[in-house]
Specification:
Elements (H helix, E strand, L loop, with lengths): L8 H15 L3 H17 L7 H12 L9 E4 L10 H12 L7 E5 L3 E5 L7 H15 L4 E5 L8 H10 L6 E7 L8 E6 L15 E5 L6 H11 L4 E4 L9 E7 L2 E6 L1 E4 L16 E2 L5 H14 L1
Parallel strand pairs: 3-4, 4-7, 7-8, 8-12
Antiparallel strand pairs: 1-10, 2-3, 5-6, 5-11, 9-10
Length: 305
């Protein structure tokens, strides 16, 4: 049996406030939130001795101003590495190894319609390029394609661009990311483009394409759905997504608590905005549980037409 690490809330909350002020992509809101945390600490709102409870209380306050679901003091049941970003990376690696690299299902339905499920994440491209490329190449010969993102909770923007590259014919500007700066240098914008070359075969930019969404679809997987929808390339079928458009970094503040702070925001080249707070709105709204059957029927009707 492991001895729980004693929790002293004040230094954890103080460090959370500092990280907000230095890194949060919206500096004015960072100031408001840092003040709120210090005030709540002084009031005794965080006088708890349980890391999970502290994480829940602080996260509720962090999300109380602008509802940013990426902004969290996240509890980890197992002790996490003090190295920056390590907590997230370790958990991600376990998920990667148990999900065939993030493409747990490739299936051929009736009528030449393929399904590729991307879950539980769009993993870092240096890990995921090979399994995702294999899955998308296998599906490239289908008459129509359904990309299932219902159980995908986010991941890497570079992996979004990689997947888009299989679903478009030519190099295309899909997103711009604005970064606040901080330790990585001054504020800047980075454009994200689909790739001119992919390993394997493309499904391409003209055959029918459907994306399945749910209330659990989050972050980078929302970007994938949104980018393809804004380009007029895919029909999104299912439920509105969770609404998180801010890539974040993680810092370990206690063996069981990780601060996740958004350091950038997405700006779509077509809409000029993103899906933060609203989610991606489906073109064909239906319950997530029914969306695969619905998309399959739409694909068959379009192919018959």
């Amino acid at each position: 049996m492991t001895t729980p690490t004693k929790l002293v809330p004040a230094p954890v909350v103080g460090e959370m406030a500092r990280l907000l002020t230095e890194h949060y992509v919206f500096p004015e809101i960072a100031e408001q939130l840092a003040d709120l945390l210090q005030r709540r600490l002084a009031e005794g709102a965080y006088d708890v001795d349980d890391a999970e409870e502290l994480g829940r209380l602080v996260t509720a306050d962090l999300q109380s101003v602008n509802g940013d679901r990426h902004l969290r003091l996240k509890h980890h049941a197992d002790p996490v590495s003090p190295k920056q970003g390590a907590a997230t990376l370790d958990a991600m690696r376990r998920d990667f190894d148990s999900s065939l690299g993030g493409a747990p299902r490739v299936q051929l339905l009736d009528g030449g319609v393929a399904v590729v499920e991307l879950a539980p994440m769009l993993f870092p491209l240096e890990w995921a390029a090979e399994p995702l490329g294999a899955a998308l190449t296998l599906a490239s010969r289908a008459q129509a394609l359904i990309v299932d993102l219902r159980a995908n909770r986010g991941g890497d923007p570079d992996t979004v661009a990689f997947v888009c590259s299989y679903l478009l014919d030519e190099r295309t500007h899909i997103n711009t990311m604005y970064w606040r700066g901080g330790e990585r240098g001054g504020e800047r914008s980075e454009q994200s483009w689909s790739l001119p070359h992919v390993p394997g075969a493309r499904f391409g930019g003209s055959k029918p394409l459907y994306v399945l969404s749910s209330g659990s679809t989050f972050s980078a997987s929302e970007e994938l759905a949104y980018d393809l929808q804004q380009l007029g390339r895919a029909v999104v079928v299912g439920e509105p997504t969770r609404g998180g458009a801010h890539p974040c970094q993680g810092w370990t503040l206690h063996p069981h608590l990780e601060a996740t702070v958004p350091v950038g925001r997405a700006i779509n080249p077509v809409s000029g905005t993103n899906w933060e707070g609203t989610g991606v709105q489906p073109d064909v709204p239906c319950a997530a549980a029914d969306s695969l059957d619905r998309a399959h029927a739409l694909a068959l009707a379009r192919l018959a037409g």
